[in-house]
Design brief:
CATH topology of the largest domain: Beta Polymerase, domain 2
Mean pLDDT: 85
Order of helices and strands: EHHEEHHEHHHHHEHEHEHEHEEHHHHH
CATH architecture of the largest domain: 2-Layer Sandwich
Radius of gyration: 29 Å
Strand content: 5-15%
CATH class of the largest domain: Alpha Beta
Structural class: alpha/beta
CATH superfamily of the largest domain: Glutamyl-tRNA reductase, N-terminal domain
Number of strands: 10
Low-confidence stretches: 419-433
Strand order of the largest sheet: 7-6-5-8-9-10
Largest sheet: 6 strands, parallel
Number of domains: 3
Length: 433
Amino acid sequence: MLLCVTASHKTAGFDLLERLSIHTLEVAPLIAEHHECVQGAVVLSTCNRFEAYVDMDEPVTAAGAIGVEATLLAIEAATGVTPAEVEGSYRVVQGGEVAEHLFAVASGLESVVVGEGEIAGQVRRALVEARAHGTSSPELERLFQRASEAQRDVKNATALSRAGRSLVRLALELADSRIADWTTQRVLLVGTGSYAAATLAALRDHGATDISVHSPSDRGERFALKHGLAHVPAADFAQAAGRADILITCTSAERPVVHAAMLAPQATRGCPVHTRGERLVIDLGLPRNVDPDVAGLPGVALLDLETIRLHAPLEELQATDAARAVVVEAARRFSVVGESHTVTPAVVALREHVFALMESEIARARARGDDGAAEQALRHLVGVLLHTPTARARELAAQGRADEYVAALAALFGIAPSDPAVPATELEQRDAG
């Protein structure tokens, strides 16, 4: 059974999401270690959401409750956020609804800015991280791989990507009203990850040319060389921040890298006083890269993720509805395949039971001197008889009624599936034979 514990901008405050985003790499292994019925865990953490996808051994009593408990305790151990603090700020999605939820998330339908493209890469990286920590499972692999496929289907079949704008571009569009000429602005970019690359592209689209980069993790020089920027080493960071007209931060640092003291006039320390009018600080980091005390500085405007979220544009309903339809259909197919896998052991057990009876009768016919006619007739009859219950199994599985099929076999023939790991491809091969 799949379940998802999700806290997002729709259910939780920005401060709580910020705290949940720290030390997230430790959460999935802690969930996986909680109980033997936990088959796997994948954690998706972005600037506006924290989600744990957990694969539970469904026959275990109260598997859902155990999965939620494992997640909340892992969050507390890794981030220090207690279950009491999270109470009321998350929801639990279970069973067939998990696929639809993740597919919608991966497609950008649940983002602050509907249709934003960054989330698709974050979903893929969440699975990669789970693999690296050994916490993935076959069902989670299937879930996340299908999520990427659903995202591509939405992108190719709908106009959702045009219904919303990425957080980076939205932030710069909000800044447009404050900036008369981007070509005159001294811009300092703090960070070198995927958000930094997207920010750089957006800055250049707006006309910015005087751009330098600093990296708290010492990757700035390589990034600067690759993108043709000026590099700001750590020793010069404070001075460069003090001179910048626009300061944009997008690092994964767990503590603020920019403080009010850094941006305040520091003539006594040899840093020039900024005299070019209002400065703009854009904080795209989660946790925050910029200390909130910056907002209190005269002549400094702070634009952070919480502010950007309040200005997110309205959805274009037609594109959103079309994307929802694609997601719902993808989730339906995922569920049908999953149910088919569930009923496969029962179909295999039935066929093995019938084939065993057939081989026994063929052996008796041979012993009586049958020339092969009886054997041929028996094999044909068994094939005809098995066709309907095999097809019916798939129909019931598609309707979510696989358990009824299993119960019927037990009641009529005393058959109990013994190998839930038989793959669908094997059943198809047996059907063909």
